[in-house]
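Throughout our pipeline, every protein is held as a single compact record rather than as scattered files. The record that follows is passed on verbatim for readers who wish to inspect the format:
___
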Amino acid sequence: MLLYRLDLLRRSPPAVAALRALQGRIAVDDMQRLNARVKLERVSERAVASDFLATTRESKGKRPGGGAGESAVTSSNIWPWFLASLSAAIVVAIPLGIAAARRRRLGAAILAVAGVVQTIPTLALLVFMIPLLGIGTAPAVAALFLYAFSRSSGTRSPA
């Protein structure tokens, strides 16, 4: 997935074209493995990239971006994960909401935790999840769960 500011297309169409030319050149599984080496094993980006390029050149039959083990998250297969995390958040939030309504101190603690989770930017929450859950679908689903849970448990302004 490419992530860039919209004004980059206006400011530098060749840069966007170069980025798009690179899109899909490395299989999702490979990219996750490379990111894990950098983030979890603390290997430098330069060393990881160099190792990957050397390995790719050595295995002539391997095509970057191909691979049977590719597990890209696309718009067609993200909905089950989204619905699962949302459903789990609802299943957890409703009993906690009932308990919070019955016990004032518990309710204050739940609202405090939900408030803290709501203040964490999405990307930062994913970064926190990577050491716990690795790189891939699991940290994204966990982050979706936490956001859905915090939104369902968070404070509401009076109507």
Observations:
- The longest helix spans residues 78-102.
- Helices lie at 6-11, 13-22, 28-39, 45-58, 78-102, 104-119, 122-133, 137-153.
- The mean pLDDT is 77.
